[in-house]
Amino acid sequence: MSTGLLFAALLSTGAADAKGATLRPWPAGQPTPALQLTGLDGQPWDVAGLRGKVVVVNFWASWCGPCVDELPVLKGLAGRDGVAVVGVNYKEPLDTIERFTQDHPLGYPVLRDRTGDAFKRWTPGVMPTTILVDRTGRARWRTVGEIPPDDTKLRAAIDALLAEPQHRTHNQN
């Protein structure tokens, strides 16, 4: 049995972690939306430019307590080889985001979702939501709720995606 199938079988129960986060497969038949936003420096960002890495896309806001509580987990993931973490801030003013990131250095890029459209396309409307995108650019897993510090499921999913052959292709429709 492949690593991915074994991992999928282990997660089939969809049980929530102690803090309520649940790792589930990306919804079947739902294409991976584009994610083209602006960074805090005003420069355009396209997450498709990170192909070749497993991308952890985290939707957050400074007023969201669970979002703040899971920051150490995301910072730890940002330091892994082959993994890129991207934070997507939900509809906050630039000065609010800048103040927050000065008080809480993240160590990964933060993009601005000024209108909330990306949040609507990528999440079920709950914050925080974290999506794992494989090295081909396809969304594969989604965690809704705070990722607890002792999480093993998200890390196992990342390990499984890193173990997949890089030349693998997916139909994104």
TrEMBL record:
The Thioredoxin domain, residue ranges: 26-163
Cellular localisation: Cell envelope
Native source organism of the sequence: Massilia cellulosiltytica
GO BP annotations, alphabetical order: cytochrome complex assembly
Molecular function via GO: disulfide oxidoreductase activity
Annotated InterPro entries: Redoxin (IPR013740), Thioredoxin-like_sf (IPR036249), Thioredoxin_CS (IPR017937), Thioredoxin_domain (IPR013766), Thioredoxin_ResA/DsbE_sf (IPR050553)
Ribosomal protein listed as a keyword: no
One Gene Ontology term, aspect cellular component: cell envelope
PANTHER family per UniProt: THIOL:DISULFIDE INTERCHANGE PROTEIN DSBE (PTHR42852), THIOREDOXIN-LIKE PROTEIN HI_1115 (PTHR42852:SF17)
CDD domains in the cross-refs: TlpA_like_family
Signal peptide: none
Protein name: Redoxin family protein
Record keywords, A-Z: Cytochrome c-type biogenesis, Redox-active center
